[in-house]
Amino acid sequence: MNFHVLTLFPEMVEDALGTSITGRAMAKGIIRLHTVNIRSFSLRGDGRIDDYPYGGGAGMVMQAEPVMRAFESLEAKLPSQCRVICLTPQGRVFDQKMAEELAGEGDLVFLCGHYEGIDERVLDEIVTDHVSIGDYVLTGGELPALVMMDAISRMVPGVLSNQESGQTESFQGGLLEYPQYSRPEDWRGKKVPPVLLSGHHANVDRWRREQSILRTLRNRPELLERAVFDKKDRKYLRGLISGQAEEEITLDQITFLSKLLANMEKS
Ligand code: 6GU
To answer: 174-266: which CATH number, 1.10.1270.20, 3.40.50.10730, 3.65.10.10, 1.10.287.130?
Structure first.
C-alpha cells in the first residue's frame, strides 16, 4: 500500500505513521508513506498558501493553485483512477467497512486541509472522496488522515502478526469486544472471572460472547440491530430481560431488548 499525503505538516504525519505497528509495516515495506509539503508550492516569496475568502467572513482559505501544484508533483507516481481523499468534517463518516474497502487499493492520496477550508475549484478538480472521522471539528486534516491510514493499514495483509490479527476484535461480527484479564488472578482484591480460569473452552467462548452482547447493549445498542444472534444468544437475551442473568440492565435496556427480540421473531 502506498499512502501519499498532501499536507502543511509532513513531519507530524511521518512521525506518527512511523511509530509502533504502522512503523514496523513501513520498515518491512508493506506500506509506504510519501508526504508532499503544500507550502513548497506557494505562489509567493513568503511561503504562504492561504488568502482571504471571497464574500468575506472569518478565517483564511487554502488557495487552489498551490494545492493543485502539490498534487501534480505526485501525479506521475500515481495509477490512473487513484482515489483522492479530502479530509473534512463535511464528508461521509469513516467506518470499519470503508477501511476494509480502501485497504484493497494500491495507492491512496490524502489531502489535509487547514484554516477555514480549501478553494472549492481545486477540490472539484482532484478529489474523489470527502471523508470525516466523526461529528466534531478538528484544526486540520492530518489527524483524520492518520486515523484512516492506521485503520486501513491493519487491514493490509502482513501488517498484523497472527497474534494481532483483526479477526475477533471490536466490529468484527458487529459486536464490541469482550473484557480481557491477565495476571495476577487477584489484583487489589478484584478477582478474574472464575470461568476464565476453568480451562473449559466452550464455557469461556460462551461467556465472552455474552459479555460482547452485554457491552454492545450498554455502550452501542444501535449496533445490536444489525448483529446476528443464534439460539443460545437469544436465550441469553431472554435471560437478561427476565432478570435471570447475573448482569443488571436498566428498564430502558429491557424495553430495547424486548423490541429487538420481537423484531427478530418477525423476520
Ligand atoms: Cl476529516 N477534518 C477536520 N478538520 N475535522 C474533523 C474531521 C476532518 N473529521 C471530524 N472532524
So the answer is: 1.10.1270.20
